Amino acid sequence: MNGTNHQALNGNPLRRTWRGNKQGTIELTTVPKFESPYEEREWIKEHMAAAFRYWGKLGFGEGVSGHITVRDPVLVDHFWMNPFAEHFSAITKSMLVLVGPDGYVSKYGAQLPINQAGFHIHSAIHKARPDVHAAAHCHSLHGKAWSAFGRPIEILTQDSCLFHENISVYQNFGGIVLAQEEGDKIAQALGPKAKTCILQNHGLLTLGKTVDEAVYLFAALDRQCQVQLLTEAAAANGIPKTIISKEDADYTAQTIQWWENTYINFQPEYKLLLKETKGDFLL
């Protein structure tokens, strides 16, 4: 502990992070409220498509591996999912598939096949964690590398406070997930509160109240795995590392882990994708 005297945190955690004018007429646009679940469905699909494009930009594609799911606000026991064997960088809103609780493609979304392992993992998570709406998993490079240790990351930087007491480890590799039992074990490893998980010898998994939160946490965790790997290499050569104290990590996490803040952190990427693609992913 470094003896820092932190002031008490008041108010909404999102409101702590930005400031407008004295007149109070400048507002920050955050998660919209919807009159209709059908309207919300369309918004979710737009942001899902952007999330996949973001993964494509980051080079997270690995053959047919990787999936994001979001609970449907209309048919609440269904979830949206990417189609099988399509590159993240090519995903559009109209390509998203609505999957029923029986694990089969429903008639309401794209009529395309889905990833079997993705259904087993994500259906178990959506069942176990009604507090979250989105789940994201793929085989990113640094996440895979760090997962070989079967350990959580350390709280080494301000950004890593996103994962302070917010990460679990599934310390088992039961092979490719082709049965519901393995999906249930992963959901159990996440526990009731953690939004991020390292799957030993496999990769990363993140959750969110929005797809924006889930995909932002995923990219942030992959980068933090890279930081950890670089730090471990330096430490192995005799350079000591400093881990952030629990007091400072607690204080920082109270703000940056708030779900609206993690949502907002993805919005610059969403806006850039709109500009770069001329809205192609909205089709």
UniProtKB/TrEMBL annotation:
SMART domains: Aldolase_II (SM01007). InterPro entries: Aldolase-II_Adducin_sf, Aldolase_II/adducin_N, Aldolase_II/adducin_N_sf. This is Class II aldolase/adducin N-terminal domain-containing protein. NCBIfam families: PRK06208.1. It holds the Pfam family Aldolase_II. Transmembrane segments: none annotated. It comes from Marasmiellus scandens. Residues 46-229 form the Class II aldolase/adducin N-terminal domain. It comes from the Eukaryota.
